[in-house]
Amino acid sequence: MKKTTILLLTICVLVMTAGTGMAAEVDFSGEYYIEGIYNSNPNLAKTDLATYYRQMRLRVQTDFKVTEDLKLTTRFDALEKVWNTDDSAFTNSEDAENIDFDRAYMTIISKVGMFMLGRQEGVTWGTTWADDEDDTDRFKWVLPLDAAGGKLIFALIAEKTTENDKTRQDDNLTNDITSGKDNDKYYFGTIYKRERYDTGLLLGLYDFNRVPDPGQRNAINQFSDAGYTANVAGLTAYGAVLQGYVAAVIADGGTPGANTLAYLAANPEIATLGTPTTAGSPMNTLITRGGVGEAHVYLLSPYFRGKFDKLGVQAELDYVFGKVEYSDDGYAVPDHDVKAFSYFMEGTYDVGPLVFQAGWAHRSGDGNEADTDEKGMGYFSPGLDWEKMLILSSDYHGLNTTMAGIGNHVGDGFITFSRPLLDGFRMPYIGADYSVRDDITIGLLAAMSTADDTVTGWDDDQGVEVDLKFTWQLMDNLEYQATFAYLSAGDYWKQGNAAADLDDLYCVFSRLTMTF
Question: What is the pLDDT of residues 171-190, one digit of tens each?
Answer without folding.
Answer: 444 445 555 689 999 999 99
